[in-house]
Amino acid sequence: MATPTPSHPTTERLTVMGAGLVGSLLSLYLAHRGHAVEVFERRGDPRRAGFQEGRSINLALSDRGWKALGGVGVANDIRQVGIPMSGRVMHDVHGNLTRQPYGHDGQAIYSVNRGHLNRRLLDLAEAQTGVTLHFGQQCTGIDLKTKELHLRDTATQQEHHEPYTRLFGTDGAFSAVRSALQRTDRFDYSQDFLDYGYKELTIAAGPGGAWQLEKNALHIWPRGQYLMIALPNLDGSFNATLFFPFEGPESFAALQTPADVTAFFDRVFPDAVPLMPALTEEFFAHPTGSLLTVKCFPWKHGDDVLLLGDAAHAIVPFYGQGMNAGFEDCTVLNALFDQHGDSAWDVIFAEFQAQRKPNNDAMADLALYNFVEMRDRVADPKFLLQKKIEAKISAQFPGQWVPLYSQVTFSDTPYAEAWAAGQRQDAIMARLMPHIQAEADYDQPEVQALVQQEMAARH
Ligand SMILES: Cc1cc2nc3c(=O)[nH]c(=O)nc-3n(C[C@H](O)[C@H](O)[C@H](O)COP(=O)(O)OP(=O)(O)OC[C@H]3O[C@@H](n4cnc5c(N)ncnc54)[C@H](O)[C@@H]3O)c2cc1C
Ligand SMILES: NC(=O)C1=CN([C@@H]2O[C@H](COP(=O)(O)OP(=O)(O)OC[C@H]3O[C@@H](n4cnc5c(N)ncnc54)[C@H](OP(=O)(O)O)[C@@H]3O)[C@@H](O)[C@H]2O)C=CC1
Ligand SMILES: Nc1ccccc1C(=O)C[C@H](N)C(=O)O
Where is the FAD-binding domain positioned along the sequence (predicted)? Predict the structure, then answer.
């Protein structure tokens, strides 16, 4: 796809802190608009040899993410290296499998490699006139009054100060830009850690790079209080993640030796163990990540600082929406520039946070909701029946009933609207399901009468 040409050239010099997923995409959007963009990133250049990758290897990319990538002409390119996952495959403790499609035929979320995506966005940003990338530059503080960044060169440990005119904080869940805003008057901030951590493990490729589990699916081992998931990689391996309590009888604290780990995995994930030859080594070599929700407000400081992505709204990963939400921030910001012109900073920043805050708050709730769904409800045959019935209602009333999962994943309906509609639909399902024991019951006249009655009452 051709790269869009800048439509609103200005001479404004902008600063982006953090060249992760959102920062690199944002830089590209800003440069396409004709701005000069200075990007500072704490880590080294991920495109150089010897770069140490972060923890999470692959991510689920869905419609909001694709839309944002499409806006800078990179969606097709990334689609080539994404693996479509059309549904969930649940593994029970005996290794029996159950399938649940995510949407209708042709709909899928995509497993993409985080490093690849980040490197590709950086390549494009660097190739764009006006973008300058500075790696190995850690923000240690910001003087909001004098508009100065405090940076540490991570190679020399030298501290230096750089002026900024307008600063975009895309420095992730533990943002230094946000820390500076936290010390301003009437800045609300909360962070909530889960009692769960996560550990990334590998399901190995089979001979000749074959996938040893169904390739086009997101695999889930739901175990009530905890779960393991696996997303496919292009090389035939899967990136598995164990979401597990920190403390308690079944917890990270309880697994202290390789023998503990082997015994536990043999008992609860028996079909996965033969596919994880490096299980015990990885379990002790890989870090245990923590999981948190960050909420804060305002996201802007005057008309010169704006937070986006995880810096503004870090969420737990269970819906696979954190990056997608951050990418959607870029789509929305770009639309506001189109609407108001490139120099209406105050209006744009104010509208941006007014639009995005309620939606990202809703997404934070949805992410916690999906944690319970993934670790527990997907193992319940009644839940799976409910999903099938919901698909039937949706097919019978096209456009009037869109399942919550589809609204979040396969649409750009604002998250808050999707969540509100999903809660209304959940209440209807709770009234219908006691009358339905099997899929065929849906076509019974008395059930159809109830469905018609519920649908009529909605309007
Ligand atoms: C286990 C896990 C699985 C996930 N799975 C998914 C998924 O499937 N789908 C999805 O949409 N989302 C997923 N997410 C969420 C996703 O990773 C984040 O939402 C996304 O990375 C946010 O992008 P960002 O650019 O805002 O932050 P980041 O990607 O964290 O980028 C921030 C950048 O800022 C840099 N930085 C940090 N501090 C400083 C500083 N002081 N100075 C300079 N630079 C700094 C960092 O080095 C980094 O490069 C997952 C998260 C986790 C933890
Ligand atoms: N919402 C959530 O639950 C989570 C979201 N994420 C998001 O995904 C992104 C990529 O993740 P990943 O590849 O794992 O990144 P990293 O593991 O590379 O983490 C990035 C940096 O964040 C800091 N950090 C990590 N955990 C904590 C913590 N508990 N308290 C304070 N600082 C911490 C560390 O900085 P230092 O080296 O200075 O200690 C670390 O180097 C993150 O940057 C974040 O935006 C990541 C984890 C959880
Ligand atoms: N990427 C993830 C990372 C961690 C936990 C879940 C996901 C998901 O994508 C879940 C998927 N959306 C699901 O509902 O089955």
Answer: 16-183, 299-361
In a 10 Å sphere around its CB, with 0-12 CB exposed, 13-18 middle and 19+ buried, how is residue 365 labelled? middle
One-character DSSP codes across 46-57: TTSTT----S--
Residue 193's pLDDT is: 98
Sorting pLDDT into bands at 50, 70 and 90, what band is 7? very low
- Please tell me the predicted confidence (pLDDT) of residue 55: 66
What is the 458 CA–ligand 1 centroid distance (Å)?
A: 39
Range 19-29 average pLDDT: 97
> How many distinct structural domains can be found in the chain?
3
Q: Is residue 102 part of a domain?
A: no
pLDDT of residue 11: 59
Predicted-complex ipTM score: 0.94
Residues with CB under 6 A from ligand 2: 54-56, 172-174, 289-292, 310, 314-316
For residue 174, report the distance from its CA to the centre of ligand 1, in Å: 9
Tens digit of pLDDT for each residue in 346-390?
Answer: 999 999 999 999 999 999 999 999 999 999 999 999 999 999 999
Among 242, 405, 384, 390, residue whose Cα is nearest residue 320: 405
Ligand 2 centroid to 42 CA: how many Å? 12
Q: Which bound ligand lies closest to the C-alpha atom of 311?
A: 1
Residue nearest to atom 37 of ligand 1 (CA): 171
Together in a domain, 312 and 273 = no
- Residue 198's domain comprises 192-290
Q: What is the pLDDT of residues 196-222, one digit of tens each?
A: 999 999 999 999 999 999 999 999 999
The residue whose C-alpha atom lies closest to atom 6 belonging to ligand 3 is: 318
Q: For residues 207 and 178, state if they share a domain.
A: no
The domain boundary residue, chosen from 351, 371, 391: 371
Please tell me the residue having the least CA distance from ligand 3 atom 15: 88
DSSP 414-429: -HHHHHHHHHHHHHHH
131-169: pLDDT as tens digits: 999 999 999 999 999 999 999 999 999 999 999 999 999
Angle, alpha carbons 201-202-205 (nearest 5°)? 175
CA 173 to ligand 2 centroid distance, Å: 6
Q: Is residue 118 part of a domain?
A: yes
Look at residue 303 and tell me if it is in a domain: yes
- Based on the domain organization, do 233 and 324 belong to the same domain? no
Q: Determine if the peptide bond prior to 298 is cis (ω within 30°).
A: yes
Residue 1 has what pLDDT?
A: 35
In 3D space, the residue among 167, 208, 183 whose CA is nearest the CA of residue 40 turns out to be 167
> 55, 58, 114: which to mutate for ligand 2, most atoms within 8 A of CB?
55
Q: Which of 340, 371, 402 lies at the terminal end of a domain, its last residue?
A: 371
Give distance in angstroms: CA of 385 to centre of ligand 3.
20
CB-based contact 10:35 (threshold 8 Å): yes
Residues 219 and 75 in one domain: no
pLDDT for 10: 54
